[in-house]
Amino acid sequence: MLTRDEILTVYAAGPEAVVALVEQLQAQLLALTERVVALEARLAKDSHNSHQPPASDGLARKTRSLRQKSGKKPGGQPGHPGSTLRWSEHPDRIVTYAPERCAQCGTSLAADHEIGCERRQVIDLPPLQLEVTEHRVLRRLCPCCQATTQAAFPPFVTQPVQYGPGVKALAVYLTQYQLLPWERAGELLADLFGQAPGEGSLATFLSTCFTRLEPLEAAIREGIRAAPVAQMDETGVRIAGKTRWLHYVGTATLALYAWHPKRGREGIEAVGVLPEFAGTRVHDAWAPYLSYGGAYALCNAHLLRELTFIAERTQQAWAGELIDWLRVMKAAVEQAQAAGTTALPAVERQAFEARYAALVSAGLEENPAPAATGKRGRPKQSPAKNLLDRLGQHQGAVLAFLHDFAVPFDNNRAERDLRMMKVQQKISGGFRPPTGASHFCRIRGYIVTLRKQGCHVLTALQSIFTDSPSLPVLSG
User: Fold this and answer.
1) What is the distance between the alpha carbons of residues 52 and 63, in angstroms, rounded to a whole number?
2) 10-43 pLDDT, tens per residue?
3) Distance of alpha carbon 460 from alpha carbon 446, whole angstroms
């Protein structure tokens, strides 16, 4: 701040000194104004109008969901099969309660006085306890040559005393899918069965699972490579105290995870799907994904959030109209799919595309390119102008779902498959050794693949420890 004496000194120096001071103050004011606008925009962002996760919204703020109301009443809808408990015609145990005396006169009632009964059933857990199976191999003496022959133990019985496939599968399931820390998983098993494997045993279970799933992971990778559509995303993960990146590629029936120190092309290609993938890849507009050739589609959920921010902050009409138009197009595709058709009529697609292009053009008119500053590099553009450039340049990728019903409107499936990684990080803080992250990626990919295909996960995990892993459908 200038003092009064400093201002008078400038005034006494003449008009040019005053003009120079005012210009300097104007430049400072402009810089501060731009900084305030940027800070206000940052504070205005949350999970409903940006890529920030819902956890960043805080406890007090409730964001408005982009999901539209269906107009239906809460609860089960007409025609929904429901999940009411079913009556069993063959109960495991029957407990009978008989009256001993007449409730009115007190006369003793015998069994031959029975005239009917009322039944109710309670579905509950049986007493939980570990079952010990002793395996014995017999030796027999040949009556002809007197040679002794001994039978062989099953392949999974290798120690004098050991845990069986059921315990191993449950321990892997709890830690790798339900994301319980090792200590809490042990506490749960001990509470249920009175005994639990130690951390050393659990580490052996995971290592065995990791090794035996290697060929199946390769088969899943090949299945995704051959799929017509694949979705991909990545998220940060803490491994050995450092930030690393968990990469995901998947389809409606397959899932593949891999971690890498790098987020960009090097990390993406370490997953082993790109650049060999020949189908349509679905992702956000992150530059490394856009650097590959071939067909691609952009996630419209990301675009809707960005458009929501522009509409709320700048009140520009084109942004709100484009939000509504994208939703109209999505609804049209869903209605066509429900009707059993495989494509929208060409006239309808052309009308959708024309209206989309008109709205983007209206936005560009309202947000022209910034004037040249004389400095090196491209002048800084507003968020609205950056978004409009992307919407125009990648129109085919934004509207890919209109032309191919196999292409989803958004990339939410990939984000859902990655979301539990953030839950694991909140629970455990990350992975201590890199081997733990590698085990998690391969086993998690197998379990998520099974879950997508409606397979019984625990039965499949048991198969890993008995003979060979159960094979899911490997076509994408």
Assistant:
1) 12
2) 788 888 888 888 888 888 888 888 787 777 777 7
3) 10
